[in-house]
């Protein structure tokens, strides 16, 4: 029995169409005049409380802005602080650390590969240069000998 009773009670807030259904229902015929007067008084009191709360909230927001101005805090500073905190949070995350480690390792491998390619190219140019110098010396020596003939 209790499980059935719990099933009848909804714990979710009213949705738009539920509010429309409740609003279109006429409960006033079920209420006595005394109950209507009590509800009207409660309605006025709630509206007054809401107005007061809005005024208090507005005053507190103005005071907050004044305090921030006195402390030199402005929107730019807050954005910088938020960005710095967010960047720090990203850097301390596990995913960032793993990605950083992987990219660092890949960078080291790429650097080693480029170094090897650079060494090979340098060696090849060195070989070509020494070959060309040898050729040039031989050519220089043989040319005068050819001219004497």
UniProtKB/TrEMBL annotation:
<protein>
    <submittedName>
        <fullName>Tumor protein D53 isoform X6</fullName>
    </submittedName>
</protein>
<dbReference type="InterPro" id="IPR007327">
    <property type="entry name" value="TPD52"/>
</dbReference>
<feature type="coiled-coil region">
    <location>
        <begin position="29"/>
        <end position="63"/>
    </location>
</feature>
<dbReference type="GO" id="GO:0005737">
    <property type="term" value="C:cytoplasm"/>
</dbReference>
<keyword id="KW-0175">Coiled coil</keyword>
<dbReference type="GO" id="GO:2001235">
    <property type="term" value="P:positive regulation of apoptotic signaling pathway"/>
</dbReference>
<comment type="similarity">
    <text>Belongs to the TPD52 family.</text>
</comment>
<feature type="region of interest" description="Disordered">
    <location>
        <begin position="1"/>
        <end position="21"/>
    </location>
</feature>
<dbReference type="Pfam" id="PF04201">
    <property type="entry name" value="TPD52"/>
</dbReference>
